[in-house]
Amino acid sequence: MKLSIPGRASATAVVAAAVLLTGGSIAGAAPAPVAVAAAPDLPVANVKAHLAQLQSIATANGGNRAHGRAGYKASLDYVKAKLDAAGFTTTVQQFTSGGRTGYNLIADWPGGDTGRVVMAGSHLDSVTAGPGINDNGSGSAAVLETALAVARSNYQPTKHLRFAWWGAEELGMVGSRYYVNSLTTANRSKISGYLNFDMIGSPNPGYFVYDDDSAIEKTFKTYFTGIGVATEIETEGDGRSDHAPFKNAGIPVGGLFSGADYIKTSAQAAKWGGTAGKAFDACYHSSCDTSSNINDTALNRNADALAYAVWELSA
What we know:
The chain is of the alpha/beta class.
C-alpha cells in the first residue's frame, strides 16, 4: 500500500533552480537542484515471504528457532544469504550462552560516513515453545526487507547504514549485549542511533513508539501522523529488548512495538480497532505463534515506518 506522508514532499523536494537570464543567472539565486531520496514503500508480501521461510525453518527443526538450536542457525543462514547476494558486507559474531553457541549477524551497507552510523536491528531467535513468527520473525523480516530495499534502490545515505539480527534475546538480550560490550568506546560513540523492532505484527495490534530519544521518537510519530494512525508510548517492553544494552551504553535508541501479553483496553480498541479485553498477542511465547499469528495491516504499517525512519535518519 502506497502511503502519503505529510512533510515527505518537502523532505524530497527538488530545490528550485536559479532563474536564468541571457548570459547568466540572477545574483543570489537558489543553487542547482538537489533531490533527497524518499523511503520506498515496502511490499508487505515480501515481508510475509520472509516470515513463510522462517516458519518453514521452524517446522523442519523441531518447531522452533531458539538459541543454540538448528532452527536458529538455519534462520541466520537464510538472512545472511539474502544480504550477501544484495551486496552487503556481513559478519557473524559468535558467543556462548547456557552452554550453547549463539550468533549475531551484522550487515554493513558500503559507503556513508562511518563516523556516524545508523543501526536497525531485531532479535532473530524464538523461544523453544514455538516458531516465533511475531516474536520476532516480524521484526527480523521487516529489517531484512528494509535492508534489501536499500540495495535495490542503491541508496547512498550520508551516514553509514548497519543492520543487525541478534541471538539469544529470549535469554536476556545476550547477543546484543555481547555486541555492545565488544565495541570500543570510540566505536560506540560512532553509533548515532539504534532502532529496535521486536514484535511489529501482533494479531490484535497497538501502535507503540519508544520514547527514549526525542529525535528518533519524533521521526516515527511523523510517519504515523502522516497515515492517520494514533500512537502511544511503549511501556510494556521497556528494557526487555535489544535496545536496552545500547541505551545503557549511552547510545540513542528508538523503536516500534505492536504489543505482547498486555490486554487491549476499550479506549485502545476504539482508537485502533481489534478486540478490547484480549491480549495484543494471545500467542506470545506459545506454540501458536505461527505464520497465522500476524496482522498484515500492522506488519505493513510498521515495516513502512521502519524504512521511513532509516531513510530519514541516515540522509
